[in-house]
C-alpha cells in the first residue's frame, strides 16, 4: 500500500474531515502540521497550493478534502490505496 501523507493544521475543519474519512476506511497516514514555516513551504512546493489539507497517496497529489471525498465516492480511493486491484 502506498504511503499516505496529509499536510494539515490543527484548526482546519477540512483537515479533520479528511482524517475522519481516512480513519473510517482504516487508512493509516502521516500527518504533517504546516504551522511551521518550513513545513508550509514544503507543502506549497510539493502541491502548488497554499490551502490545507493537501493529501498525497504515494507520489500522487490527490488534492484537498473535496478531492479526496469525490475520489472515495467514485470508488477510486480503494483503487489508489491498493493498485493491485486495478490490474
From TrEMBL:
<dbReference type="Pfam" id="PF00462">
    <property type="entry name" value="Glutaredoxin"/>
</dbReference>
<feature type="domain" description="Glutaredoxin">
    <location>
        <begin position="4"/>
        <end position="62"/>
    </location>
</feature>
<keyword id="KW-0963">Cytoplasm</keyword>
<keyword id="KW-1015">Disulfide bond</keyword>
<dbReference type="InterPro" id="IPR011900">
    <property type="entry name" value="GRX_bact"/>
</dbReference>
<dbReference type="InterPro" id="IPR014025">
    <property type="entry name" value="Glutaredoxin_subgr"/>
</dbReference>
<dbReference type="InterPro" id="IPR002109">
    <property type="entry name" value="Glutaredoxin"/>
</dbReference>
<comment type="similarity">
    <text>Belongs to the glutaredoxin family.</text>
</comment>
<keyword id="KW-0676">Redox-active center</keyword>
<dbReference type="InterPro" id="IPR011767">
    <property type="entry name" value="GLR_AS"/>
</dbReference>
<keyword id="KW-0813">Transport</keyword>
<protein>
    <recommendedName>
        <fullName>Glutaredoxin</fullName>
    </recommendedName>
</protein>
<dbReference type="InterPro" id="IPR036249">
    <property type="entry name" value="Thioredoxin-like_sf"/>
</dbReference>
<keyword id="KW-0249">Electron transport</keyword>
<comment type="function">
    <text>Has a glutathione-disulfide oxidoreductase activity in the presence of NADPH and glutathione reductase. Reduces low molecular weight disulfides and proteins.</text>
</comment>
